[in-house]
Amino acid sequence: MGCVDKIKIIFNELIRKKQEKKYQEERLQQKEKKHLYNLRMGINLPEVKEQIILRKNEVCHCKCYAIRYETKMTMRHSKKHAGASVRIAKGFSVNIGGGKSREIKEEVESKDRGLLFITSKRIIFAGQKKNFTVTYPNLIVIEPFNHGFIFQTENINYKIYVEDIKFVEEVGAILDGALINIKRGISL
Hints:
The chain is an alpha+beta fold. The chain is 29% helix and 45% strand.
């Protein structure tokens, strides 16, 4: 066996290994797609044993680290005064002249780190500062975005970022599956 034959054998072996690796990656992607499809259809939703208090016939399907963003409007007043100020006593003075006051509106955004739980009956966020629980019948819209979800109820919008970006699609699939099971009347 000559040098050329050995090079052909090595080259063919490398090609075979590369094709095998590509085939395994494709199978893994197909499995992942099937897994997400099954979750979205409410089939084989995982059961997570957690230390949250569950209601009767309720199962926790998902637990993940998340960040809740809350935007609030704050109002403050800015005063301008023209004229003189006469001090009458300590802490008490009288203003003589004109003044002007205007309202300033500002948006303040706050963050709260915590855990997001998705159960068969509700969505729970247990944060370091604030918590919330939303039952599925109270949800109006679940709006997914790149890194999380906006849960809209009649009164409040909850904006949640899932910390592990790779986990966002699976969390969305579990949410879909839980909602489908509620519609089917399967709440376990």
